[in-house]
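pasting for ref
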Amino acid sequence: MPERLKEWADKHLTVLFLLPSIVIISFICIFPLGYSLFMSFHIWELASPLPRRFAGMANYIKILHEGRFWYSLIHSVSIVGTSVAIQIFVGFTLALLLNREFRGRSLLVSLFLIPTIIAPVVVAFMWRMLYSEYFGPINYVIHLTLGFKGIPWLSRPLPALFSIILANAWEWFPLVLLVSLGGLQSIPDDYYDAAHIDGASGWQIVRHIVLPLMVPIILIIALIRVIEDFKLLDIIYVLTHGGPGMSTETLNYYTYLKGFRFFSFGYAGALSYMQLIVVVAIAIILIRNIMRE
């Protein structure tokens, strides 16, 4: 019997080593996903004395007919799309500039990485002070250089939306910079040497050699940042609370309000799965492009 047990253990050694991780991941990830899906099919109002009751697809149908859902979805797509575009543009441009040997390069790269290692809540409070209409340094510089009154960054719809995009892009462009720099350094020097021999300019090298080779990496960065930025909550919470009005209310923030302000757990669960469907749809498009490249 011990020999058979030992033989079975040898055959299934990989599974035995993975079992603790599988149990932990199931408890941390799979169970909450399943339970939130279970909640999404129920009317579950913690603020109401009525008991939880099964509602089928009623929550999902209600969401699709609710204007606030579409309004928050548009804000989410606007913030994510613009922020990711800025992150990729700034991060990749800086990576191109830093992709050469010069004195102090390592120190400069380390300084650029500082925003990423700061807690998002700290970043949000820092930008809230910078955006202060009467005492913020941004408006002070605008008044000093341009001579007109400062911009109401957080009290008007359009500036508030741009404020969130700028703060989020500032925090995460160093990640794009780091990954892009690694991708650029993996390109063989032979390509550059051949281009220089053919008389190609710096812009032609970037356009015809660097960009085609970096497209898969850029798409992977975009995929990661899109998934992460759809979960953006802390910066919006600190800067605007979804305001003024609902002008900066994203789908993630609306889900938070429904679940933890109004205690509509069933509706919040359905909202979270609607957000999951949107993110998965965007991810599929990006992954198809990555596989094609």
